[in-house]
Amino acid sequence: MFKAKTITLKGRFSLEAGRQMGKGLVEALGDKPGAVWLFASPGKGLRGLLAGIADTVETENIIGCTTDGEISCSGFGTGSAVLGGIATDRIEFHVASAKGIGDNSEAAGKKLAEKLPGSVRYVQAFSDGLTGDGCGILRGMMSVLGDSMPICGGAAADGIRFQETRQFCGREFLTDSVVGIGFSGDIKVGAGVRSGWSPIGIARKVTRSRKQIVYELDGQPALEVYSRLFGKHAENLPMVGIEYPLGLVDCSQALDDPDYNVVLRASVSINDRDGSIRFAGEIPEGAMVRLTCGDLKCTLEAAGRAAKMALQDLGDCTPAMVFFFSCMARRTLLGRRTEEEVEKVRLEAGADVPILGFYSYGEFCPAKRGRPSLLHNETATVSILGFNR
Predict the structure, then answer these.
(1) From residue 184, how far is each of 31, 120, 127, 258, 308 by CA, in Å?
(2) 122 and 251: one domain?
(3) How far apart are CA 59 and CA 64, in angstroms?
(4) Same-domain pairing of 166 and 228
(5) Residues 203 and 185 grouped into a single domain
(6) What phi, psi does 112 have (nearest 5°)?
């Protein structure tokens, strides 16, 4: 048995609104949920909303975070709260949290993973998108779970405020934390990731970097290189770096390969004093990188390709639920056409398959089955739960 439903709230957040959402979800499922997900726009009354949901959903397995946009069976929305739930006798769920990712992201990721049982076959993680290091969180988690464990999810957002994000685990209302949910049992997961951005220009070597900060490209100050590349548009840094993110080149792939898929890094700040650029994810020293570009058509097509990739990964299994985690930079680029991206995924997976997700400050997903999970920027990531026919 497997049932999945979503409930959407448009309106003020409050304790009573949370109770109504929780009751509505249980009624829609017709059974007690094994786990529920809350993805919500930041706003007043959010703590009460979570408490009301916890009072009524009949499970302690509550997980989620704040967003830059919510995705549900009703489509794409902003300024809303989405509550999704699964009732099943085929999966066991396990939720956990770890605080203080700003101090030591890798240790927090390890601590989170250690709280999950060894039976887990798939994990979702949602971290504070303004503190800590997503790459470090994944390293910590994989040090316990192994490199081949599929870890999907994303970094919590707070719209475009960039002030404070929130993470939810049970009744916990957290910040500067990572929360996760593990899936055990008779389940298979297919994962897909695509961006729609393509490499342009020559490859350059990162000759000096430290985690998310790049100091030198080809032995020259990174900001100086960017200023030459962008000319008069360099005055719009770091925002122009969202339109033209940096791609980490995989030298084992040919650039004319239709399945070529770079890991993107968006610039988030510049330092005029030392000529460095800070990115939304780690860029290793010694890596080869290229600028990338995209357009609306390629961006939309990429979401569909990510879903198709996840279905191929799922094999002959029947899709049961879709989780879609996309980037706030994509939403900014797509604007009023953001709904089309969600529909591209639904078209591939099947309109009758429940969908749940949000727009994030960074996405977690393996590039291919059996490969380590990575932190992506500006990317559409799709994971699909399925069962043998």
Answers:
(1) 20, 4, 21, 34, 24
(2) no
(3) 14
(4) no
(5) no
(6) -60, -50
The overall pTM is greater than 0.85 = yes
Amino acid present at 204: R
At residue 318, does pLDDT exceed 50? yes
Q: Would you say 358 and 69 are in contact if contact means Cβ atoms under 8 Å apart?
A: yes
Q: Which of 243, 260, 292 is the last residue of a domain?
A: 292
C-alpha–C-alpha distance, residues 136 and 149, integer Å: 16
Q: Please state whether the peptide bond connecting residue 33 to the residue before it is cis, i.e. omega within 30 degrees of 0.
A: no
Q: Is 136 exposed, middle or buried (0-12, 13-18, 19+ CB in 10 A)?
A: buried
Residue 254 makes CB contacts below 8 A (sequence gap 6+) with 260
**Domain around 348:** 2-193+298-387
Segment 112-126, tens digit of pLDDT: 999 999 999 999 999
Output the six-digit token pair for 282.
């780690």
Q: Which two tokens stand for residue 212?
A: 């998310």
> Amino acid identity, residue 140?
G
37 and 128 assigned to the same domain: yes
Indicate if the pLDDT at residue 256 is higher than 60: no
Last residue within a domain, chosen from 232, 258, 292: 292
DSSP letters spanning 39-93: EE---TTHHHHHHHHHHHSS-S-EEEEE-SSEEETTEEESSEEEEEEEEESSEEE
Q: What is the C-alpha separation between 205 and 323, in angstroms, rounded?
A: 35
Burial of 139 per CB tally in 10 Å (0-12, 13-18, 19+): middle
The total domain count for the chain is 2
Task: Give yes or no: residues 54 and 73 share one domain.
Answer: yes
Helix (H, G, I), strand (E, B) or coil at 215: strand
248-277 per-residue burial string, b: 16 or more CB within 10 A, e: under 16:
bbeeeeeeeeeeebbbbbbbbebeeeebbb
Q: Are residues 32 and 110 in the same domain?
A: yes
Summarised one tens digit per residue, pLDDT across range 200-218 is 889 999 999 999 999 999 9
Of 20, 22, 16, the residue nearest 5 (C-alpha): 22
